[in-house]
Amino acid sequence: MDSKNYHNIILLYKIILIYGLCLVFSKAELPRFAHATKSDGSLILLVVGDWGRRGTFNQTEVAIQMANVGRLVDPDFIISTGDNFYEDGLTCVDDPAFEESFSNIYMGPEQWYSVLGNHDYRGDVLAQLDPILNQKDARWICLRSFIISTDVADLFLVDTTPFVDKYFTDPEDHTYDWRGVLPREEYLSNLLKENHVDIYVNGHDHSLEHISSSDSPLQFLTSGGGSKAWRQTIRPWNPQELKFYYDGQGFMTMALTENGVLFQFHDVLGNILHQWSGSKGFET
Ligand SMILES: *[C@@H]1O[C@H](CO)[C@@H](O)[C@H](O)[C@H]1NC(C)=O
Questions:
Q1: Residues within the annotated binding site for Fe cation?
Q2: pLDDT value at position 282?
Q3: Where is Fe cation 1 annotated to bind (predicted)?
């Protein structure tokens, strides 16, 4: 496995979905949201990333399909893997991009839980985290790192942008707003914990992707197709592990039950491009 690629996939932000009941998070310092499952004990999510472009680059088309699929599967909530507002985050809490790229684009009633991406750090990073946005649109919740607890899974939403060395050592012509992150070593050591993670979900790459680890039960899922895509910069990957790669727009649905997980990748026309299911403890 090419270690550079591995780094890109694993450490470029955003969600670590932890799937299991008997999980102990040694220092319970992260904010925690309790969310009910459905009456049958299942949990259904939509996951989208890399989206806020005032509807352009098929953002609106993806949003329409999310609403269509949402009416069918009745998601419990939506997760954004980050890069919420292009190109440089929000300028302030009154930036109209909040309405133009979020409130006016996504139609479903579901709660969103969002983390930050590298582009979000290039604006006023505190604006996206400000509870005032939740007053403007109650669907919006964005924190740095937090936990969503449900009966069937604990979801760890981890802000991994500060994990990427390059953004600190070689920011090129970008300016990052690292308020609340420095000193960086302390920030990282508090986040890196030993946990039995089953599924890792990230955005950042403008694609939909599924990689199965060959030496562990981990499934790596990328949902970063919320708007601009078609970059044609496909990184090579071990074909034994690469189950699916789509260099275009779309989003992911995920259903978790006591016994297993099913996820599906959808494109802008609502087609299911790839799906995978596994039982709980799917390594054995
Ligand atoms: C929008 O989606 C269609 C269908 O996948 C694709 O052919 C088209 O190139 C996309 N447009 C943009 C701007 O990405």
A1: 50, 83, 86, 118, 204, 206
A2: 46
A3: 50, 83, 86, 206
